[in-house]
Write a structure and sequence with these properties.
There is one protein chain. This protein is mainly alpha-helical and about 270 residues long. It has a domain of about 170 residues. It contains 11 helices and no strands. The longest helix is centred in the C-terminal third of the chain and has 27 residues. It is globular. It starts with about 35 loop residues before the first helix and ends with a helix.
Amino acid sequence: MGTSKPNRGPKGTPNPIPEWVSDSNFDGPSPAANSDNNDQEENGDENAKDEEHSDKMNWSDVRRSFTAFTKETSKSNFKKFTSKYRKASGGKKSLANSAQSGKKGAIILVDFLESISKKGFEETLEKYNIGDISSLNAEGSINKLTEIFIDLDGTDEGSAASYAAVETINKLYNDYTDNPDEINALDDNKISEYLEFYISKYIFERISIEITTALEEKDLSSNEVKGIETQIEYFIDAEVNLKFSESNFSNMNLKKKNRIINKIFEDAYSLI
């Protein structure tokens, strides 16, 4: 393994599974919470309920809050922007429900990581028909591994999922480049970290795409847009701090996996 950045392709187009949410608690309170998120605590559940039941806001409100963020990229302005974004999109439940490729990619990722944990990396490559990657360079190896996500659709939402998948596989590869044998010892905590990383990258890319298509700021140069996106990514990475309760995800059927992943996406969107 060698440190590398993968080829993501056109924009728009291996290990254990964490013991997440307990079955008895699944339909109860959210398994994810960020105790350091003062903004969320201050708003409380009342605002969340209002958000879910309110009519979608006009995207002009999002534009104004985004413009304010471009002028001062503070955490306060970021929170105002993402709050308007959630409301304009129908709330966290609507965003999670519409994240079809995002959730599909998350399930593929955790299944892949669980397989590595239980069967080992080499056997997992055989299971997923990836084959031997030892003769490939770093970029080639990462691109080969990301073929497990080949079925993600080519919509903008699917593009966000593909981006997140590539970024996560790239991180996985580079994390074990110096000590490749250690990948077989992935534990639940590491799998949860990779899932959290994947979801953060998905949310960032989806917001970035929607800003580009719906909130285009013609007065900003490409370099300015890139700088703003860097700030957005930084804040999202910092805010999406999921906490997973224990449960045996590997013994769940696909329907239950989908339900839990959907809840995790709701939790993630409530944190930004």
